[in-house]
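Following up on my earlier thread - several people asked me to post the actual chain instead of describing it. Fair enough. Here it is, all 390 residues.
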Amino acid sequence: MIPYATILTQPYGYRSSDVASYRERIIQEVSQTDCEWILWNCSLSIAHRGARASIPMPPHIPAHVVCICMNGSPLYWRKAWLLAALARWNDRLPAARFLPYDLLPVDPSLTMHLHAAHNPPYQKELEYILPILSATRMRESAASPEGTLSFKPSRQPAVSILMSIHNMKDTLGWSIRSVLAQSAENWELLIGDDGSEDESLEEACTIQDGRIRVMSQSRNRGKAIMMNRLLAEAKGHYILELDGDDWLAPETVALLSDALDKNPEGRVATGRYGCWERTRQLGPLWRRNADSGKLYTEWSPSFNRSHEHGHPLVPRMYRKSSLIAIGGWWNREDRFGRIFEDIDLTARLLKHSSPVRVDALLYHRVIYGNSTSQRNRSLFEAWYQETMRG
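Reply from S.P.:
Thanks for posting it. Predicted structure:
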C-alpha cells in the first residue's frame, strides 16, 4: 500500500479571507509531512468522516498523475504538485470547501479517475459551481506568457452587465468570476460602488480585464440611482442585472441575448434560477430550482395583491432601448426608493407584455437574513399602496 498523509484541517466560511486562511493552513500542514501523497477532500472530511478507510489508494499510479479523483471528487494529491498549486492559487470561491476542486489540473491526463458506490456530498452545489471553476481555469491557462489576459473591450458589446454594490467584498469576487466564465465573450461588466464602507471597491478593481469598468460614489444613495448611472455608461444593446452576492451560469449571456435577438418585440428575457441559502460555516447551500417568469406572464393588480412580499423577476436581461423609454429605475432616495426597485421597474416595463422565457437555469440567487430584500419584506404592502396604486 502506498503511504499517504491525511489533511485534518477543516474548511470554514464563505469570505475570501476565510478561503485565504484555509489555504495557508493547508500549505502548512502539507509541508510538515514526509509522505509523497496527500489525502485531502473538503466535502469528504465533513460529511463522510468514517469513509476514509473504505477508499484505499490504487496499487499502481502512473508517474505523471498528480491527482486521483473518486466519482469526480478530488481525493489524493501528489505532495509536490499540490504545494506548487496552492502557492500559485489566488482566486475567488463561494466557500472554502471548494478549494480542492479549483486546484484540479487543467490537463486531464494528469488526473486519475476512480469510482465508488457513494457520490461526493454537496453534489447539487458542485453541479452548478464546477462549470465556472473549469471555464475560468481554462481562461487563465490561455493568458499570455506575461500573465496578462488577451480579452480586450469591444467598441460595441452585445450585453452590458450592470452591478451596483454596497459592502459586498466577501461575495463580489465570485460574482465577477461567474461573468468571466461566460461562454459568450462579447460583454462588458460595469460595477458601481455605492459608497461602500468595506473593501468592495478594491475587490472590484482586483481583476484586470478590459471589459470591466468600475465606478464609485462616496455617499451611499441607493441601488436605483447607481443603476441609472451605470445605464448611462452602458454600450450594449442589452442590459443584464447581476447582484454582487449572486452569480451567473456560464450560458446566461448567450441564451438570454439570443432569446431577445429572436423576439424583437420582447422587452425583457428571463429564465429559471437556483435559490441558495447562505450559511456562515459552509457558504451557499442549494435549496431549490425556481421560475419567477411564470408569475409575470400577465402583470395585473391581482398579481401584486396575491404576492404580499413581492417577488422580483430573476434573471433579468432588458432591451436597453426599452429601459431608456421608461426612464430607467425609480430615481429617489427616500425609504421606498431603496427597496423593491426591480419589481417597480419590471411592472412598468411589462405593463402590456410578458417576458421572453428561456427554459434553463441561468442565475443563482443567494438568500440570507440580513440582505436588503429580506429585511424589508414586511414593507411590501405599504410600498405597493404608495407606488403601484399611487
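The first strand starts at residue 4 and ends at 6. That should answer part of your original question.
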